[in-house]
Specification:
By secondary structure, the protein is mainly α. The chain is built from 14 helices and five strands. Bound molecules: adenosine-5'-triphosphate and magnesium ion.
Length: 331
């Protein structure tokens, strides 16, 4: 039997290059080798967008188009919609006995996200609990592997903890402890220099951006703020233009030469960025083309995701049964 992957995204907007390197590339690479489940986390998206359900609903179709555009094969991978799989919420309730409020408060990702969203003083309970709900997603199919970005590392760790505690408490082996798989060692930074590009942070290069949008964004990418003239020696560390060069530019010699010249003060930002645009457009151009094709397939992709949801519900029902048996609440 193939091992299982569970991964997914929040329908809070279109997908960006952080998703591409953090998780999407691994999904495409592994969809033959693994039984892959891809979650459209619309219930989780509502935890911090409950007052904007239209955005969440519309973003589902955008996500599906982005999946198609990067090469996710809807025949090989099971794409599904979280709100269609009620068992996830049931598993979440059972798991919530195995974590404390204090543990979640100390979760570094929750801390960062609460600060970013201005929710430190008044935290919606739904949002606060999302690490446990997300463990419900993963354990609903008892996934072995979870391809995610670095920001999600503490969430996968917390899921492993929950699975272990559940099994140990009842002396069973019902839940698997999943492994995280990171596409990149650090989150892909935003064009504004923020350590994370994020849909909710307004600092993204989207997979669906037109060539003109891409060019305009590349020209605005954060570089070395201390450098005023092209003849000033510049810094590579924390320089987003070079982070993107390392990710996109296949011509490694060109990148090394640009870095040397940048540090010596013999190349301007404009040349670095013009070359970056060419390298990025080479990767993003074909994705953009395929996405255009996906626009005409929206209805079909949604239908497939609904069929996928039924399949996941059946698998999850089996896990729920075993959990209830262990907790002596099965009648
Ligand atoms: P939001 O701002 O609404 O949280 P997001 O951009 O963080 O949106 P998510 O849907 O939360 O996107 O994340 C989906 C997946 O993409 C997760 O595995 C996450 O770790 C990964 N990911 C998101 N942003 C980045 C990034 N900048 N670099 C690498 N991986 C990322
Ligand atoms: Mg996020």
């Amino acid at each position: 039997m193939k091992k299982r992957i569970l991964t997914g995204d929040r329908p809070t907007g279109k997908l960006h290059i952080g998703h591409y390197f953090g998780s999407l590339q691994n999904r495409v690479k592994l969809q033959d080798e693994y039984e892959q489940f891809i979650l459209v986390a619309n219930v989780q998206a509502l935890t911090d967008n409950f007052d904007n359900p239209g955005k969440v609903r519309e973003s589902i179709l955008e996500l599906l188009c982005d999946y198609y555009a990067v090469g996710i094969d809807f025949e090989k991978s099971t794409v599904f919609i979280q709100s269609e799989v009620k068992q996830i919420h049931e598993i979440f309730v059972y798991l919530s006995n195995f974590v404390t409020v204090q543990q979640i408060s100390h979760n570094p990702t929750i801390k960062t996200e609460l600060a970013q969203k201005g929710m430190e003083e008044s935290t919606p309970l739904g949002f606060f609990m999302y690490p446990v709900h997300q463990a419900g997603d993963i354990l609903a199919v008892n996934a072995d592997l979870v391809p995610v970005g670095k920001d999600q590392a503490p969430m996968v760790e917390s899921c492993r903890d929950l699975a272990r505690k559940f099994n140990d408490t009842y002396g069973v082996k019902v839940l698997h402890e999943p492994q995280a798989l990171f596409g990149v060692e650090k989150n892909v930074p935003g064009i504004d220099g923020n350590a994370k590009m994020g849909k909710s942070l307004n600092n993204c290069i989207y997979l669906s951006d037109s060539e003109e949008e891409l060019k305009a964004k590349v020209m605005k990418v954060y570089t070395d703020p201390k450098r005023i003239h092209a003849t000033d020696p510049g810094t590579i560390e924390g320089n987003v233009a070079f982070v993107y060069h390392d990710l996109f530019n296949e011509n490694k010699e060109e990148v090394e030469e640009l870095k040397k010249r940048y540090m010596a003060g013999t190349v301007g930002d404009v040349e670095v960025k013009e070359k970056l645009f060419v390298a990025m457009n080479k990767v993003l151009g074909p994705i953009r083309e395929k996405r255009r094709e996906a626009e005409g397939l929206k209805d079909d992709l949604l239908k497939r995701a609904l069929v996928g949801s039924k399949k996941v519900s059946e698998i999850a029902e089996g896990i729920v049964d075993q959990m209830k048996e262990a907790m002596k609440i099965k009648f």
